[in-house]
Task: inverse folding
């Protein structure tokens, strides 16, 4: 199935993101975590690359296995970093042959210690818009997603130019957008309005990540540079006396975010799980979320 323009239709997309583990045991545990989501009928799950495509083969194997054994549609991440056109072409051919027709096109993070001259190959892609354009030309049957940044793109401090770059990705052929995580819905609604002003009319799925521990909070601050943590959230976490209490605070905050987003008719909710799906499952069950299977075949 193609993700395509399902967000334009009635119903809300609910999806989950996972990243490649570092150990053999972790890969099996990750697959089991994804399998637990089957009763929730998620719209799709997405699987990231490691930095610089370092887990490319394992990611491919996991993506194919998820779709084959669970029936959940999968969005496979592709990055510009460390990839040339022939490699990307071969990867996408393999995905299409396996029945996977959904790609999230990203610039990608540089591996630790790598320079941009090392990370971007001569016959590759320097920007996500280049990758989108290539995929649209070579694989018109594939549905392409891109990233959005409600709090601002970390590498583009000029907020006007940021929207120009985002619009260029849509014009190049992107079908939908998944945002970076945020904790204040006002940031998302403002971003959504600025997209409308820029002429961006694709479905925008809101990225939500429940906080499950103080360590988890610190990791978010490191991984999602520039993320704004509202004072009310931090105040509630400070009152929590242990990690179980912090988890309750984080899940409650995210639940209220999702409830408000749904009430305001968001196209979709995309949960960043950090490979721990329980908190996201709890939110879905609390709110009675049901997937509307309304995808383009």
Result:
């Amino acid at each position: 199935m193609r993700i395509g323009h399902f967000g334009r239709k009635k119903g809300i997309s609910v999806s989950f993101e996972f990243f490649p583990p570092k150990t053999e045991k972790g890969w099996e545990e990750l697959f089991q975590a994804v399998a637990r989501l089957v009763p929730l009928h998620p719209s799709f799950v997405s699987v990231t690359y490691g930095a610089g495509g370092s887990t490319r083969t394992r990611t491919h194997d996991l993506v194919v296995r998820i779709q084959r054994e669970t029936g959940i549609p999968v969005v496979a991440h592709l990055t510009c970093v460390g990839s040339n056109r022939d490699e990307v072409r071969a990867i996408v051919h393999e995905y299409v042959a396996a029945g996977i027709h959904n790609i999230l096109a990203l610039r990608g993070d540089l591996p630790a210690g790598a320079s941009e001259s090392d990370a971007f190959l001569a016959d590759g892609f320097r920007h996500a818009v280049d990758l989108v354009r290539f995929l649209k030309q070579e694989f018109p049957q594939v549905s392409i997603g891109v990233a959005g940044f409600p709090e601002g793109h970390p590498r583009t401090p000029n907020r006007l130019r940021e929207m120009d770059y985002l619009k260029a990705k849509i014009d190049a052929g992107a079908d939908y957008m998944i945002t970076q995580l945020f904790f204040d819905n006002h940031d998302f609604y403002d971003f959504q309005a600025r997209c409308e002003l820029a002429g961006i009319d694709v479905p925008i799925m809101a990225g939500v990540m429940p906080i499950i521990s103080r360590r988890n909070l610190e990791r978010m601050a490191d991984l999602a540079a520039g993320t704004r943590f509202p004072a009310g959230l931090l105040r509630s976490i400070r009152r929590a006396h242990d990690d179980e209490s912090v988890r309750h605070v984080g899940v409650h905050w995210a639940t209220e975010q999702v409830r408000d987003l749904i009430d305001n008719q968001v196209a979709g909710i995309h949960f960043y799980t950090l490979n721990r799906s329980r908190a996201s499952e709890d939110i879905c069950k609390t709110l009675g979320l049901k997937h509307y299977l309304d995808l383009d075949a």
About this structure: The chain is about 45% helix and 15% strand. The first helix runs from residue 24 to 35. The beta strands are 13-18, 44-47, 74-79, 102-106, 143-148, 176-181, 204-208, 268-272.
